[in-house]
């Protein structure tokens, strides 16, 4: 029997592909997913503001290479830095939700 034959929704697919919630593989998947979302939101907001990575870095006191890493989903980001990039650099408010 195919491991996908019983799947009827997206949550089941994620469980088959990445494991149950709380497992190491699932935690890594969730972490990478969140980083991807943040990186895409930053990239989109920066482009909407018609700013280069260099301009955003200068405005927020960071480095272009760091912003590039974040936008490519390769760097860790502290919440304080995330807030500074969005709120100070891009004039966007951040709301966090914990589930």
UniProtKB/TrEMBL annotation:
This is XRE family transcriptional regulator. One of its GO terms (cellular component) is cytosol. Keywords: DNA-binding. Coiled coil: none annotated. SUPFAM superfamilies: lambda repressor-like DNA-binding domains (SSF47413). CDD domains: HTH_XRE. PROSITE patterns: HTH_CROC1 (PS50943). Transmembrane segments: none annotated. It holds the Pfam family HTH_3. Residues 42-85 form the HTH cro/C1-type domain. SMART domains: HTH_XRE. One of its GO terms (molecular function) is DNA binding. InterPro entries: Cro/C1-type_HTH, Lambda_DNA-bd_dom_sf, TransReg_Diox_bact_type.
């Amino acid at each position: 029997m195919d491991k996908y034959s019983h799947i009827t929704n997206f949550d089941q697919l994620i469980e088959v592909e990445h494991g149950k919630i709380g497992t190491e593989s699932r935690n890594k998947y969730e972490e990478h997913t969140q980083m991807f979302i943040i990186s895409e939101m930053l990239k989109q907001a920066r482009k909407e503001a018609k700013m280069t990575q260099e301009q955003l870095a200068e405005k927020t006191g960071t480095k272009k290479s760091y912003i590039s890493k974040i936008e490519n989903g390769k760097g860790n980001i502290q919440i304080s830095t995330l807030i500074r990039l969005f709120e100070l650099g891009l004039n966007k408010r951040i709301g966090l939700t914990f589930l």
